[in-house]
Here is the input.
Amino acid sequence: MFKLNKTFSKAAAMAAFFCFSGGALAASAAAPKAAGARPVQLFFDDFSYADFAALSSQGWTPRSKAGHPGVPGAVWSAEQFSLHDDPSLKGNRVLRLSASTDGSGEGTRQAQLCHARKYLEGTYAARIRFTDAPVSGVDGDPVIQTFYAVTPLKHDFDPNFSEMDWEYLPNGGWGSEKTRLYGIAWQTVQLEPWQAHNQSHEEMGSLNGWHELMMQVAQGQVKLYLDGRHIATHGGRSYPVSPMSINFNLWFSPGGLLPKTEQTRRYEQDVDWVFHARNQVLSPAQVQAEVKRLRAQGIAHVDTVPAAEPPLSSLCDF
Here is the structure.
């Protein structure tokens, strides 16, 4: 999850997977296929938990380690998460992320939640409520609301680094005051001094409210869908090459915070559900149908996606 200062698009079309020197992951034996039957290897979470302890028991890890991204000195903790009844749908619950700042590093709280590092090709989707204004305090801080998948960055320009993310900036940031949604596929990056290699798409305007975000990852292409509409295709060297964890986070860009005040400014982001079909390309309509089927059967959580081989740790610190 990164600040997007500059985009370097690699135009040359390359193979679906890359073998880098130094032990990068090679291509999987079976290529992803279009959906016919229902997904066999599936991850779905409806976040219908009584409390955060129940959520944690299903493989979700809240971040506690300080560091990138966000405001230096900010605290990441499980206290930034809560579960709530959905007033728009009887019996439904949502996961809520909360982030707040008083304009200082020590007065900033950010949220990140991670699932196991075992996801690569297939279909990713989530239903998220973005918010344009804080629930308390004055408006204007450069807050970033997200859904993404990422591999840890072991060192600058790590060739095995992979990331695909959605980032909503209701108050602008990164050199522009415009409200917009980014869809980004990453090749690699250097944090200090900043140098990013990625492909990105900007969807301009407010997205306040509920939206479905989807990524199809197959055959060397990452296709992005917003509310069922195809908005971008990325690929080439930006195509993911190593297993990623699924993440949500809510943070503030360190540049552009409003001045320090006695009252904190608090923002929220809600997640209704998250979905992944391993090695299978589903359309937005097929994802919606599968989520509807699972809910109709009272299935609030399922995880038949196998662990990476060998198993990979998910530290939830990036």
Q: What stands out?
A: The domain at 33-303 is CATH 2.60.120.200 (Jelly Rolls). The mean pLDDT is 90.
